[in-house]
Amino acid sequence: MPQIIRDLRSPISVELSVNLSTISRLAPLPLPRLARLVLLYTRDEDFKTVVRQALCDTGTVLLIAQTADEALQIVCRRKRELDVAIMAFNKDCHGMTLVGAIRGCCEQLPTLVVFDKDSEQARAIAYANGARFCLSKSVSPQQLANAIADLEPATQQLAVA
């Protein structure tokens, strides 16, 4: 008799940005690339709103993880498909183990860490664990969009012979 295994956990949130855009350097991706894939780890509803506003009209697919386990599952399953990871932490240095684990699973993934309270110690620990950029949660949608744009690798252009 085959066993049926059911996953009783709630599904991970997936959103596609299609609202009015703000002025930033983060633009929709050129074809043939259909969407930017961004992992967001946060439990803060206000910060989710800021991220949604930052990614509006960019064709970004936002994968929202509310637990460290969900975030690691997304990274380990999607690996090179992910373009950027945004990790938001409520306390100074808590969660840096997650940033390090993500780096261990997917070393090339650009990671942006956002703190409730900005501190030099928290930034140093985040950078030591693989973060490429750190911000405080008082960031505006436009500043966040520009930080994401700065994390993305430059589009490779083909040379014409």
Provide structural commentary.
The chain has 161 residues and is an alpha/beta fold. The chain is 32% helix and 19% strand. It contains five helices and six strands. Helix 3 links the parallel strand 4 and strand 5. It is globular, with a radius of gyration of 16 Å. The N and C termini lie far apart (61 Å). The N terminus and C terminus are likely disordered.
Quick take:
With 161 residues, the chain is an alpha/beta fold. It has helices at residues 45-54, 68-78, 96-105, 120-128, 141-151, and strands at 13-16, 36-41, 60-65, 84-89, 111-115, 133-136. It has one domain (13-151): 3-Layer(aba) Sandwich (Rossmann fold), CATH 3.40.50.2300.
Beta-strand content estimate: 15-25%
Radius of gyration: 16 Å
Uncertain regions: pLDDT < 50 for 5+ in a row?
Answer: 1-11, 17-22, 154-161
Q: Topology as H/E string? A: EEHEHEHEHEH
Any idea what the CATH superfamily is called?
A: Response regulator
CATH class descriptor name: Alpha Beta
- The shape is globular
CATH architecture label name: 3-Layer(aba) Sandwich
The strand count comes to 6
Give me the side-by-side strand order of the main sheet.
1-3-2-4-5-6
CATH topology: Rossmann fold
* Euclidean distance between termini CA atoms: 61 Å
The tally of helices reads 5
Average of pLDDT: 75
